[in-house]
Amino acid sequence: MLLSIAPHASGQRANEAAIRSYSQQAEQAMASHNTKAAAAALEKLARLTPDVPEVYANLGTVYYAQGRYGDAAEAFQRALKLNPEIPDARLMLGICYAELGRGKEAVPLLEPAFRHPPNSDVGRTVGISLMDAYASLDRNTEALEITEQLLNRYPNAPEVLYRASHLYGNRALQTMTRLVDVAPESPWKRMAFAEALEAQKRYDLAVIQYRKVIEADPSIPGVHYRLGRALLLNAKDSEEARDQAIREFQQALASDPRNAGAQYELGEIYRQRGRSEQAIGYFSRAVDVAPRFEEARIALARTLIHLQKPQQAVAHLRAAIELDPRNEVSHFLLAEAYKSLGERAKYQNEMALYNEYHFRPFAEKSTVQNQPPQALLPPEATKQTLQPEQSSRP
């Protein structure tokens, strides 16, 4: 909003008509979002009223809207020199400094405003600028602290989420680069490279790197589990790969019995081989260790249904649905359990939900453009699907 300008404030009464005209032009241009016309009117007005701080504050606002951050900063500086108390000029100057990479000057202007923002929108803008300012100064701890506060205040703001992902990604890259520099031959570096290869679905290369990690230091946390996952993903239909993966998951449990992922993966291999009783033991331990492990809940429930124990399966499927109400697999299996129990109304309700989420993915869930880049995702456990059971083996 433009600050009002009194024509007589400049002491140039002969130009009152021109001042009034340019003021009206600027107000009308800003109201119609015509920043080019607003800037032209305000520049003329500034020449007629060189001692009126409101003109420069308005001009700074227009320049900022045009992305002319250097010009905007100069205008706000001039406004503050004429009136250090002019509303919002100090805050806008700090935002301009951040855009210009002048973090050292931006931080003292933005920090107080972020701690006590006048409103939510301003607080978000100031926070993003302050985060950028700290990052430009390599003050990473402060940048991450501001990012966490932004995520807490605005958990669903797209720009906050985007900028936070960049900051964390850049920090991760910097950390990885330092790891390579200080310990190029360490098993920790190989572990990081193996995980990156796995995230890129280059499972054959990931297997090689994980094995090199084990050769160097088999006590590295999680390495046996990650190797087991990579073996499964590299050869999904290979019984030999499953046998190798079993050995790795057992090694993972030997060093960490609370590794819920290893418990689950062992259970899944045995489930697919038709060894349901053995699978249930592993799934149950995975759920005990990690109650919010959705895939383990589903796998345990489907195995209970297979063993004619639908009543026990219901509780696990309801828990899985609380974790992800849109998972079609949970609804289908819960419908199956209710059908076995003779609860027709509940069966029909779950089948309706299954149909809703099963036929929606072609428009929503499975479209590539709606999925985050795979390299940003942590490695997942084997997903439960509704594909036909694989042939069992004694």
Uncertain runs: 7-11, 365-369, 374-378, 389-394
**CATH homologous superfamily grouping of the domain at 7-153:** Tetratricopeptide repeat domain
Beginning-to-end CA distance, first to last residue = 76 Å
Number of DSSP E strands: 0
Helix content estimate:
over 70%
SS-derived structural category: mainly alpha
- H/E element order: HHHHHHHHHHHHHHHHHHH
Just give the CATH class of the domain at 7-153.
Mainly Alpha
Portion in strands = under 5%
How does CATH name the architecture of the domain at 7-153? Alpha Horseshoe
Rg over CA atoms: 31 Å
Overall pLDDT metric: 88
What characteristic shape results from the CA principal axes? elongated
Characterize the main sheet: none
